[in-house]
Amino acid sequence: MLNVFKLEKFYYVPKYDLVIEANDLDIEDINNIVFKYLGCRTINKFNSKTRLIIGNKYYGNSATIIISNKCMLKCKYCYSSSGTNCNNSFLSFNKYKKIVNILINNAKIINKKTPWIDLTFHGGGEPTYNFSLLKRFIQYAIKKCKENNTLCLKRIITNGFFSINQAKWLSENFNEVCFSIDGPSEINGFTRQSISGKDITMIVIKNARYISENNCKVSFNTVLTNKSIGFGEKIAKFFLNNVPKLSSVQFTRYVPTIDGNNFINTISNDEYLNIYKDARKVLKERAKSFIGEELRLNGYCKGTSLNTIYCHPNGFLTSCIQFDKNSKNNLYKIGEINKTIEIDNNNVNNIVKNNNDKLKNCNECFAFYHCGGGCKAIYDNTNDFNYNWCQLVFKILKFYMIEKLNNSNLNINYKKNDIDYNLKYTIFNKRYTNENN
What we know:
The strands form 3 sheets. This protein has an 11-stranded mixed beta sheet with strand order 12-11-10-9-8-7-6-13-14-15-16. The protein has helices at 27-38, 93-110, 131-147, 164-173, 185-191, 201-212, 232-242, 269-283, 302-305, 345-359, 368-371, 376-381, 385-407; strands at residues 5-7, 10-13, 18-21, 53-54, 57-58, 62-65, 116-121, 151-158, 176-180, 217-224, 248-253, 287-288, 309-311, 316-318, 333-337, 341-343, 411-416, 419-427. The chain has 2 domains: 1-42 and 386-437, no CATH class; 53-346, Aldolase class I (TIM Barrel), CATH 3.20.20. It has 13 helices and 18 strands.
């Protein structure tokens, strides 16, 4: 028997990622429709991507590098208090070299014909804070990859507060530059000020436009707070008018964290969805929520999927970027960089067990194929995960379903017992669409 969920004007069949819009259908009808028009095609049952942290070794070819916890901004919601709590230094060059060397060695095992490594330079600080160090890091990775006939993919998440000459260098040395920006000055100038209180919005926009026009992919990450309410379309138009080649905008709902700044108010699920809907009217498919429209073939939470590592300035290795940097016993701390990458197998096993316990409540959820269990950091940081994650996921998926049903031009006439049903249906992930339909 199929697992079918009735959602107002349509049915959702998670096994096939199928939406059926119809009246008065029973389960047998749905079964017949599914098997008539899809045959026995099924998606693979959700499984987390194969773990790459096994025992005391890391077998992956990707890493997120947090060069420093220092930053030149004082964002109202910074999860690591970077601009106001800069009491640490920078990741040592020697430790960074060890990371790159191990990734290259792993890459040559994973894919002998076309090995590649994937480096992401992230906040927790600002990766461009010490620009000369960033250049040194990148130049080393490029050099070592060239020596080993290995492709080097490089992505950076930045606040965009740098000179046009630095923007030029980034466009020439990165595959993608993702800017953190929350909208026009009346929003971004409040939420993301420099330490001196300066509005840097147009500096960020100028750099983003320059980089996008120099054949480098540019994306935005936009955090929605109470300052964003009613500004969805205005934010989207501001972005597109100033950076026409923008590839995508990820809209994220601000969620307070244990050791973050938390100097601004968050928004409700409905407020988030209303802002997102308004922005999507302008940006179309370039507007992204934190939940994708297509099926997930691996988990949402990198902190528990154990398929990459985060390297912090103090040499700690974690499976999640949001961790208590002052605690040596944090759940997500999985090791350190010393003579090599040293993994604590006990911590890895605890993460697996902890996540498996949490997922017991998720396996029967209709959203599981898109959510994959959600963000463990939010789960640990909130008293009401159902509201702060699950309910918002439901609302977003429902919005996607309705949007796709309204846009669908595929009509199916299904006949049973001399009763005609006029149906519209859509498959989120086109890879599983029956070509004969």
